[in-house]
Amino acid sequence: MDQLGKRDNVRDLLIEEEMQHSYLTYAMSVIVSRALPDVRDGLKPSQRRILVAMNDLGLGPRSRFRKCAKICGDTSGNYHPHGEGVIYPTLVRLAQDFIMRYPLIDGQGNFGSIDGDPPAAMRYTEARLSAVAMEMLEDIEKDTVDYEPNYDSTRAEPVVLPSKFPNLLCNGSSGIAVGMATSVPPNNLVEVCDALIKVIDNPDVTTEELLRVLPGPDFPTGGVICGRAGIRQGYTTGRGTITVRGRTHLETTRGGRQNIVITEIPYALNKTTLKERLAEAVNKGTIEGVSDLRDESDREGMRIVVELRRDADDQVVLNQLFKHTPLQSTCSIILLALVEGRPVTMSIKDFLVAFKNYRVEVIRRRTRYLLERAEARAHILEGLLIALDQIDAVIDTIRKSADVPTAHDRLMKRFRLSDRQATAILEMRLQRLTGLERKSIAEELATLRDDIEGYRAVLADESLVLDIIREDLYELKERYGDDRRTEIVEAETDLNMEDLVAEEDVAVTISHAGYVKRMPLGLYRRQRRGGKGVAGAQPREGDFVEHLFIASTHDYLLFFTDRGKVYWQKVYDIPQLSRTARGRAIVNLLELESGEGITSMIPVRSFDERQLLLATARGVVKKTPLADYSRPKRGGIIAINLDEGDTLIGCQLTRGNDDIILGTRLGYALRFRDSTLRSLSRATRGVRGIHLREKDAIVGMVVVDDRATLLTVCAHGYGKRTAFKEYRLQKRGGLGIINIRASARNGEVIGLLDVLDSDELMLITTGGNVIRLPVSDIRTIGRNTQGVRLIRLGEEDRLASVARVVQEEAVSAEEGGQAAPAAADGKEAQEKAEEAEADSGEPDDEDASA
After folding, report:
1. Closest Cα partner for 222 from 257, 268, 260, 282?
2. Cα(788)–Cα(784) distance, integer angstroms
3. Rounded distance, CA 426 to CA 411, Å?
4. Cα gap 792→718, rounded to integer Å
5. Sheet harboring 584-585: ordered strands across?
6. Exposure pattern of 105-144 as b/e (b: 16+ CB <10 Å)?
7. Is 90 exposed, middle or buried (0-12, 13-18, 19+ CB in 10 A)?
8. How far is the C-alpha of 24 from the C-alpha of 20, rounded, in Å?
9. Which terminus of the chain, N or C, has less C-beta within 10 A?
10. What is the location of CATH 1.10.268.10 in the chain?
């Protein structure tokens, strides 16, 4: 013990300090040598060593495949002494096209699948470098990077690859170190190159400007990113979270059922795991409405079919899939990488600038290398030309020399040559004494002098270096650029994105009690005038369908209420239900106040320069730019300020120079120019549109179209078409003229429409019956008439709403199946008498000006 205590290499240490020091050493080793990528080439040491080992074996894109066991053995024996069991999984990952956006290894054999199938053993698989990997290794032999001894100092390995290809941004990287982690998402090469070019052209470019050309991640498995806020935060601060969904679409089977088809899944999600989680949720009842689940994936692509029950709402089931299965996943953005051996969290611009600066360094080192080689070669050629110009003297000097060293010294002294030039002359073959060889040497020297001048210019001017980088980026885009696979949608909270819903025209109905639904137009077969219609909604006792509207599923719906407020909704957010279904309570979609009812629904594709004209029951009208309604709130915004007791009855889109007709409940109409109305802001009252008689109110507003006619419909199922020219232009605020006789036969007016001969109508009654008939079945008659029968109503039934179907081509095979009843019961004669009665009229009422 005494001898032991006298040794100089034995020291007393505090175990706390030793543990702390050892753990920090281990942590830094994991951070620097294993888990985190280098910001320059985007590779971890294990990945880089695999590529270097394959390059040593000459496994280029056009070479023969070699066994992965050989590759892993060379990597382990020469560079990475951590066992082949670690190397092979890394090699496999670099070859999987569902993991790498641009695979660095071209694999042959079973390299696993997105289903979660493991790869075959390394003795069965083969690999070689991909073309993209060769771009990363290009110029590695031209002193572009530093080398360091390998683990046993038997050879040198590169510290980093030259990496013309921006691998870290294009392929991304993930890793967990000690106390930190990185999660760099993959991006599209074309967008990354455009962003790099933008950084080169303008070093002061902002992150917001970069996001215009580099909008966000582009995963190899596609999918849909919901919202841009997470991308913006992650790319600006280096840390963020994004929501990624699988891509789905709806299909209708021959039996009329709806299927949800999944064609893309979120990045890094195992397809088998998704199917298991989906089946588990269905079995537990978490997801309702699913009758079957099938995996129809093949070599053409992924296809998971979720078959729905007949009574299922496809949008509800889809939302449940997103909520209860990994079909919607959260992906972290952590832009952490090694910068000069230190882990640093950066913004996307920092990543781009770091890669640009590294490429500047690589090109400068390559240029210096080429310059040195060119100068050395030019120096030799200059000596050879001196010898050829004085060949006789050179030969005489060599012949008179006793040995080679003497000849070497005499050549240097006599012809003022350098050591390398004299050596080259002595080693020159006799065939180079010919005139042709001399010309060849002179041409080579001239070319080298031009190259030397170019190399020196590049080293002296950084703008030329940036030009080279820019040209490299254009070349990469041309060779390897492809289309974006991942779609980015604007609304992060939007559960029903447009790409998940096929665009089609649908009928949207709202009942008096506030139930809403949408239905395909094909549910209604076209009938002739006078038909009985088909059964529509089956409302509860006391309820009836009050509004019907035709719109595209991709339109916006502006809901205007009787209280002068407007709510904003997408048509595809309206639940699609069967024709006989009652619908969904609109209070579940819109935050309506107690007693507030919908009066108008305006479908718009975009909020452009058009004007929105609003009318109230008491005759007030107002014109407001449509763009003023483009920023709604969940609780609605004010559309018009109403007087006490007044209600909003309708809205119309105008171009600012249209003629408008206001129709009243008692059958009067007033035509005026909307140009006489000045455009007002959204939260204003408006001006008088028509002077109403006692107990009268506005029930409809129409924008005049000279190609069309005015259709007026009354509560008892009668109506008529009249040419717009029969309604003369009047001053706004007048009493108007007679439009239709609101007699006991007709009842009060319930609606007005502008229609064409090619249009079709959909009439819906308070009892829930629906009839679809062509406008051409209704002949055009005079203004001051009573009209003809449009639909036969029961004793207690009344017409509630009318809507137009424009140029509907697809009709049922049963077209006309329920024609007007035959004359067996004398009804034909009765209809003829009704049409004769419709032609009778009375003189115009007295006009009145405001």
Report:
1. 268
2. 13
3. 9
4. 9
5. 545-552, 505-511, 515-520, 584-585
6. bbbebebbebeeeebeebeebbbbbbebbbbbbbbbebeb
7. middle
8. 6
9. N
10. 355-480
**Tokens 């479908």 belong to which residue?**
603
Side-by-side strand order, sheet with 66-67? 66-67, 126-129, 105-108
Q: Could you tell me if 601 and 552 are in contact, meaning their C-beta atoms sit under 8 angstroms apart?
A: no
**pLDDT at site 645:** 85
* Unique residue bearing structure tokens 């529509």: 536
Give me 387's structure tokens. Answer: 């010898």
Amino acid at the residue 364: R
What does the pLDDT read at residue 833? 45
Q: Where are the alpha helices (DSSP H) in 728-844?
A: 827-838
Give the closest residue to 489 by CA, choosing from 189, 263, 239, 231: 231
* Single-letter amino acid code for the residue at 284: K
Euclidean distance between CA atoms 526 and 762, whole angstroms = 9
The amino acid present at 26, given as its one-letter code, is Y
CA distances for 509 relative to 136, 220, 517, 580, 798, angstroms: 60, 42, 6, 12, 17
Element (H, E) at 368: helix 348-389
Alpha carbon 647 to chain centroid distance? 41
518 and 504 in contact (C-beta within 8 Å)? Answer: no
How far the first Cα of the chain sits from its last, in Å, is 120
To 10 degrees, what angle do helices 348-389 and 391-399 make? 80
- pLDDT of 783 reads 85
**Residue type at 16?**
E
Considering only CA atoms, which of 774, 787, 781, 752 is closest in space to residue 820? Answer: 774
> In the chain, where does the domain assigned CATH 2.120.10.90 lie?
524-531+555-567+599-801+828-838
Locate 520 and state its tokens.
Answer: 């395909």
Which of 55, 35, 127 lies closest to 88 in space, CA to CA? 127
What token pair was written down for 474?
């254009």
CA 149 to chain centre: 47
* Entry pTM: 0.60
Q: Which residue has the tokens 């001053």?
A: 731
**Each residue of 331-354: pLDDT tens digit?**
999 999 999 888 999 999 999 999
Fold of 355-480: Topoisomerase; domain 3 (1.10.268)
In the chain, CATH 3.30.1360.40 sits at 247-326
Residue 763 phi/psi, 5-degree rounding, is: -110, 140
CA–CA separation, 554 vs 572, rounded Å? 6
151 assigned to active site: no
Residue holding tokens 């406008």? 775
> Three-state SS string across 629-666, please?
HCCCCCCCEECCCCCCCCCEEEEEEECCCCEEEEEECC
- pLDDT on residue 272: 92
| Residue 332 in tokens | 């972290």
Question: Tokens 């074309």 appear where?
Answer: 190
Interatomic CA distance for residues 755 and 748, integer angstroms: 20
Burial class (CB in 10 A: 0-12, 13-18, 19+), 219: buried
Rg (CA), the chain: 41
| C-beta separation of 687 from 603 below 8 A | no
Looking up tokens 């717009």 gives 724
Fold of 43-162: Topoisomerase II; domain 5 (3.90.199)
Residue ranges of the chain whose pLDDT lies below 70: 1-8, 23, 25-33, 430-436, 491-503, 512-513, 522-547, 634, 805-850
Alpha-carbon distances of 688 from 246, 642, 728, rounded to whole Å: 53, 12, 19
Domain 524-531+555-567+599-801+828-838 bears CATH identifier 3.40.50.1000: no
Catalytic position from the list 124, 147, 151, 474: 124
What is the domain class of 247-326 according to CATH?
Answer: alpha beta
Amino acid (one-letter) located at 253: T
Residue 849: the pLDDT is 36
